[in-house]
Amino acid sequence: MTGTVENMETDADTPKKKSKKGLLIGVLLALVLGGGGFFATYSGFVGATASPTDIAKQEAPVADLPTLAFIELEPLVISLGSTTGSRHLRFRGSLEIVPSYEADVTYVLPRVIDVLNSYLRAVDLTVLEDPAALIKLRAQMLRRIQLVTGEGRVRDLLILEFVLN
Fold first, then answer.
1. Residue 12 CB partners (closer than 8 Å, separation 6+)
2. Which comes out higher in pLDDT, residue 66 or 163?
3. Which residue among 13, 16, 26, 89 is buried most deeply as judged by most CB within 10 Å?
4. 3-state secondary structure (DSSP) of residue 136
5. What is the pLDDT of residue 54?
6. 39 in the same domain as 77
7. Same domain assignment for residues 52 and 37
8. CB 139 within 8 A of CB 157
9. How far apart are CA 47 and CA 147, in angstroms?
């Protein structure tokens, strides 16, 4: 009897082998889902980019540009005062105008140049050196130009060159 008791004890001590059924199902499921994802992507169901003809069909019609005219201002070289040494500002711009007022704006162009010259000479050097200040300077110059030329004639001021030497 002692032999059977020992056999029973050794059988209870040995662990049972786990089933590999869960692992096999997981591997098969990963393969099937991976293959399905590849097929969906490859066939264009998922993540497909539209062809150029499809994009052209989806885009809204483009409106025509408004009629504009541009008057280029003569380049300005402005000395920045006696305390700054020999520093100069080079400015070149263009006015975007309504075409029907081109003759009127051209007629008062010397006054526009004078206003810009006076304003830029009065601006502090620290303001001119600040890159973010160009937007404010542009708005100030445009407002002064619109006062000289009259409301509704000049639509915008385009800054073509703004260089500190």
1. none
2. 163
3. 89
4. helix
5. 63
6. no
7. yes
8. no
9. 55
Same domain? For 133 and 159 the reply is yes
Quickly count: other Cβ atoms within 10 Å of residue 79's Cβ: 11
Summarised one tens digit per residue, pLDDT across range 84-93 is 566 899 999 9
Question: How far are the Cα atoms of 30, 31, 32, 70, 123 from residue 25, in angstroms, in the given order?
Answer: 9, 10, 10, 73, 77
Q: What's the residue count for the chain? A: 165
The DSSP-derived string for 62-113 is: PPPPPP-EEEEPPPEEEE--STT-S-EEEEEEEEEE-GGGHHHHHHTHHHHH
The answer on 43 and 78 residing in a single domain is: no
* Residue position matching structure tokens 């075409």: 99
- The predicted pLDDT at position 50 comes to 60
- HEC string of 14-54 equals CCCCCCCHHHHHHHHHHHHHHHHHHHHHHHCCCCCCCCHHH
One domain for residues 75 and 149: yes
Distances, alpha carbon 148 to alpha carbons 99, 142, 143, in Å? 17, 10, 9
Mean pLDDT, rounded, for 74-80: 92
Structural domain harbouring 137 = 69-164
* pLDDT at 106 > cutoff 90: yes
Output the six-digit token pair for 113. Answer: 């140049």
Same domain flag for 57 and 107: no
